Amino acid sequence: MSALTIQWNEAGKEKTQTIYEQQRNTKNPGTVRIGRDPSRCDIVLSDPTVSGLHVEIFFNLQQFLIRNLRPSNPPLVDGKQLTQGEQPLKQGSIIFLGQTQVKVIAVFISEASSVPPTVLSGPPVNKPNAPHTPVGHQPTPFHQHSYGLQCPRCQRVSTLDYLNIGCKWCGTSLAAAASVLMAPENQE
Fold it and tell me: I want to staple 37 with a disulfide (CB 3.0 to 4.6 A). Which of 52, 90, 95, 145 is the partner?
């Protein structure tokens, strides 16, 4: 059975998750969705620069692909913005969801399909002593990018400093706000 394993840091702890070719019992069967919203995502990241529903990973035509689900906050995959469509993933691929880096640490493509699993491989596992997989290039630095939180009420975009305060224009809580990539000319 084909599988892809990703790794990221959450609250200072290294986490991994394996995704299988025909994932079932997920929010959207056949895909694994990643984002900040636990009601819509199978892998939940707490970083406020990650959108509520950011990307999905799925298996098609003997490869794992990533699809952007948030056009206003596109992921960077191997240094390039994925604004629409899908992009194949390979071992060593680096994905930035907002400012969270997700690494593809293993890809196994099976010659024959087998019975799909009924659940994800389990909750993310902390592996503090896991070996680091070297990557051929460093991703594009993020200091030139800026993220904001789009108010669900007035649709204006505030900086991340307002996450715990609320929208600076209408006062609405930004806890469930969408994370958006701000154009350099719109940064305060």
Answer: 52
Cα–Cα distances in angstroms (integers) from residue 113 to residues 69, 89, 117, in the given order? 27, 19, 11
Reference 43, options 74, 66, 61; nearest CA is 66
Spatial distance between the Cα atoms of 155 and 67, rounded to a whole number of angstroms: 25
Q: If DSSP codes are grouped into helix, strand and coil, which group holds residue 184? A: helix
Strand partners, 146: 182
Threshold 0.70, pTM exceeds: no
Alpha-helical segments (H) within the chain:
none
Instruction: List residues bridging with 63 in a β-sheet.
Output: 60
pLDDT tier at 11 (50, 70, 90 boundaries)?
confident
Q: Report which secondary-structure segment, H or E, holds 99.
A: none
In this predicted structure, the answer to whether residue 186 has a pLDDT above a threshold of 70 is: no
55: its two tokens: 């990307």
Q: What is d(CA 108, CA 38) in angstroms, rounded to the nearest whole number?
A: 27
Q: Residue 158: enclosing H or E segment and its boundaries? A: strand 157-159
Q: Give dist(CA 122, CA 158) in Å, integer.
A: 36
Cα distances (angstroms) measured from residue 62 to each of 7, 82, 145: 22, 21, 34
Instruction: Print burial letters for 40-62: b (CB count within 10 Å at least 16), e (below 16).
Output: ebbbbbebbbbbbbbbbbbbeee
| DSSP classification of residue 49 | T
Q: 147 has which bridge partners?
A: 181
